[in-house]
Amino acid sequence: DLRDDWYGPGYGVATTAGREAAMRAEAAGIALEQTYTGKAFAAFLSCLSATDAPVLFWNTWSSRPLPAGIAPA
């Protein structure tokens, strides 16, 4: 499914849901920024609460090398 419920007013524009989701992720030890991955995590949380089926959040960190100090899992 392609869902656009969490895009907000535009590309690169933070949303309240994205900011709140990024804060929830940070509390769980997951580092996200509030615009792109925050919006994706908000979608994940919404889908997670709406189904009993497995839901996957996969943060790819883009195609760039990982920041210094972060080892691949």
Proportion of strand residues: under 5%
Low-confidence stretches: none
Class derived from helix and strand content: mainly alpha
Query: Span between N and C termini?
Result: 27 Å
Radius of gyration: 13 Å
What is the share of helical residues? 25-40%
Major pleated sheet: none
Q: Can you count the helices?
A: 2
Question: What is the H/E string?
Answer: HH
The number of E-state strands comes to: 0
Protein described:
The protein is mostly helical. The chain is built from two helices and no strands. The protein has helices spanning 16-27, 36-50. It is globular. The model has no long low-confidence stretch (mean pLDDT 87).
Task: Write the SSE topology.
Layout: H1 16-27, H2 36-50
Helix pairs in contact: 1-2
Salient structural properties:
single chain; 73 residues; mainly alpha; 0% strand; globular
Can you describe this structure in just a few lines?
By secondary structure, the protein is mainly α. The protein has helices spanning 16-27, 36-50.
